[in-house]
Amino acid sequence: MQQKENSEIDRLIEIQKKIVPEIIETLVSRYNMLRLIHYHEPIGRRNLASILGIGERIVRREVNVLKEQGFIDIKAEGMNITKFGYTSLGMLRSFIHRFKGLYNIEEEVAKKLGIKKVLVVPGFYDEDKFVLREIGRAVSIYLKSILKNDTVLGITGGQTMAMVAEEMIDEELKLANITVVPARGGLGKDVENQANTIAAKVAKKLRTSYKLLHMPDNISKELFRSLSEDPNIKEVVDYIQKIGILVFGIGRADKMAKRRRLNEEKIEVLRQQGAVAEAFGYYFNKDGEIVQEINTVGVSLNHYKQLKHVIGAAAGIEKAEAIISISKLNKNLTLAIDEGLAKEILK
Where does the Sugar-binding domain lie (predicted)? Predict the structure, then answer.
């Protein structure tokens, strides 16, 4: 029944496209404007025009339409989205998704990669960095839909995972015994992008418990074994081994090598070896084959391969090869990406 209704909706949309071809452009334009007002509120017309890269006169005209229809309020300090506008924004996401044919693209990408599920958010991250927030939102919604009692939730670090925590709605789940843990040690300088910080923020949003791993990611195996004897660290390491749901960001090999502070000579060796992705203590080539092992703290590759619930997220067309590589490691992967990256993968 639902499939029949969706088919009828799709046919109606195709008719609308033919009768009023400009409807998509107008809808997407006003949706993006409403979305940016929400992200920046309160914001003035001049700043909004600057962010959108269009003339202030055009912005004034479109803003007046949004105001007249009750989507936004305009005050001295700037524009704010109304309660009706916020609710409508959620509904518009679904319409934009269907108007742009993203459901079909999701199925095509999932089939090409041979994985369980793909979530594609409208927009091109390479042109609009706020698309990353939409990916964070999509991941947080899907994550809540699969969480169950007595689950250890693991989450890695990075900018994309930080956005998952940021976009997660603060609410208490009617679930028992959920523990959030960092799925890898500390990496890089930005505290807000560390796995510890993100795990704590996600746990607070879900109003559940969490554990912190006070250990850098790139330490020697000998030092790791020594530190693991500490009761506090051992407890967290034991929790990591019990992770049932993993949420992680997918990174390019060369970018991750720089975060690990490898010199240019070693990065060049990785390039020559065909490394395109880094995860779970290894660098992989485009076929998902290991080209180099590294010292790392967190979820092991064997553990990852056995997980039934894994959610990977990435944005930007430069991540296409890394995604193709990582997708070969576990067919239970649910992938959240932007529209531009999805189309790049299909090339």
Answer: 98-347
